[in-house]
Amino acid sequence: MADEELEAIRRQRMGELQAKHGDPSSDQQGQQEAKQRETEMRNSILAQVLDQSARARLSNLALVKPDKAKAVENYLIQMARFGQLGGKITEAGLIEILEKVSQQTEKKTTVKVSTL
Description:
Layout: H1 3-20, H2 24-49, H3 52-64, H4 66-81, H5 91-104
Helix pairs in contact: 2-4, 3-4, 3-5
């Protein structure tokens, strides 16, 4: 065997042992990689279902209201996974979805005044 092959086998085995014994640095790195893969997957799905103007509007919303943008993204991804979308969503379509999400998450404030 060549030295390069032996070195590759050693590195692979060392990686397996570190993963098996819970090396904290590799565990943290694994979590970070998983989070990055999830983000890439979300962006890929959103790029497939939104046209450019709708994507820009969603990005602007994420700057101002990140929680609302995340809710809309989750809604769009869920609809895409279940095949409920019939093509790319335009900016007007995204506005309708934003209105639906706003109505669902609308917080009503009531003020009660009591007299002594």
